[in-house]
Specification:
- The structure holds 2 protein chains of 2 kinds.
- Chain A is an all-alpha fold.
- Helices cover 63% and strands 0% of the residues of chain A.
- Chain A is built from 5 helices and no strands.
- By secondary structure, chain B is mainly alpha-helical.
- Chain B has a domain of 83 residues.
- Helix content of chain B is 64%, strand content 0%.
- In chain B, helix 8 runs antiparallel to helix 9.
- Chain B is globular and about 45 Å long.
- The chains are: A mainly alpha, B mainly alpha.
- Chains A and B meet through helix 1, helix 2, helix 3, helix 4 and helix 5 of A and helix 2, helix 3, helix 4, helix 5 and helix 7 of B.
Chain lengths: 121, 185
């Protein structure tokens, strides 16, 4: 994450301006390999390291939660320039301020937990 | 050897992300980073305030190991495997950022205007970081996943809900960068 600059605020801003292929290349290549790999696992009934069958849990159907929740997430992703994985990468790299983003993210998760039953899903 | 110290190209990083996802699949887990935020809430006692946090967080300890790994990776990447922090973004991006007041564009890893220690004393940048975090945490849980859970894991399994969520991610991101940034900065 750090070395590919996917944890850089600047790369996220550049991505949302469509001014570089870099981030699309990272997500796109991970995705192409991911789709092929998942299909191979499913078709060949590949077992896990422990010999158990691999189960893929389908996402619950719905629209509102994915569209609204996704948009809210996107606003934060672009503003803080970091998604939940790279937050830890940046803490490890020594950027103290990102801890404020982490605290915000934990509070946001807590807020969702409180409001979950009142929100349309 | 020099190549390791240079920024890694997308065709190295993308396959590595896919590799992490498959490693987790092969140990019977799912790749998703934002779930850890819920674990933190429960660890702090949030299970007493809302049912959503009432789950066995210890079963999620493996994911906290991923968190520690991500932090270690950040430390190694930044302190042992890099010579230069500058991120070589598109010159056009640099000039549009400078117009917004981001003078560190092109010479830093994160913008000083938001992330430097001095910026922490400014109410504006401090609240922007906190609000950004809030939106990330709230949105990720509402949507049931973030970039790793939906854009990578979910789309790899051709899940329609994940596609809707990723469209939302971009709708929100584009709105922030193109409509709200000129008003905020």
């Amino acid at each position: 994450m750090y070395k590919s600059e996917a944890a850089s605020w600047f790369r996220i801003y550049e991505m949302f301006n469509f001014q570089s292929f870099h981030m699309y290349g990272i997500i796109g290549s991970a995705l192409v390999i991911g789709i092929i790999g998942v299909q191979l696992i499913k078709r060949n009934n590949v077992k896990s390291f422990y010999g158990e069958p691999i189960r893929f849990v389908p996402k619950e159907r719905g629209f509102t939660r994915y569209m609204v929740g996704g948009t809210i997430f996107g606003l934060g992703w672009a503003l803080a320039g970091s998604c939940p994985g790279p937050i830890y990468t940046l803490i490890g790299a020594g950027y103290v301020s990102i801890i404020v983003v982490l605290i915000g993210a934990i509070l946001g998760t807590f807020l969702y937990g409180l409001l979950q039953k009142k929100l349309p899903h | 050897m020099d190549l390791i110290f240079e920024p890694w190209p997308w065709y190295v990083a993308g396959p590595l992300i896919a590799l992490i996802m498959f490693l987790l699949i092969f140990i019977g887990k799912q790749f998703g980073m934002s779930s850890n935020l819920r674990t933190f809430c429960t660890m702090c006692g949030a299970d007493k305030t809302a049912d959503f946090f009432n789950f066995d967080w210890k079963a999620q300890r493996w994911n906290l190991v991923v968190v520690v790994g991500a932090a270690l990776g950040g430390f190694i990447g930044a302190h042992l495997l890099s010579n230069d922090v500058a991120v070589a973004i598109n010159p056009e991006t640099i000039s549009s950022l400078k117009e917004l007041g981001f003078n560190s564009a092109g010479s830093a890893y994160l913008p000083d205007e938001l992330f430097s220690l001095e910026a922490l004393t400014s109410v504006k940048s401090l609240s922007l970081l906190l609000i950004g975090g809030l939106l990330i945490g709230f949105g990720a849980r509402y949507a049931g996943g973030c970039t790793s859970g939906h854009a990578i894991s979910g789309l790899s399994n051709l899940q329609l809900p994940s596609l809707i969520a990723v469209i939302g991610f971009f709708a929100g991101g584009l709105f922030m960068v193109h409509v709200l940034f000129p008003l905020i900065f």
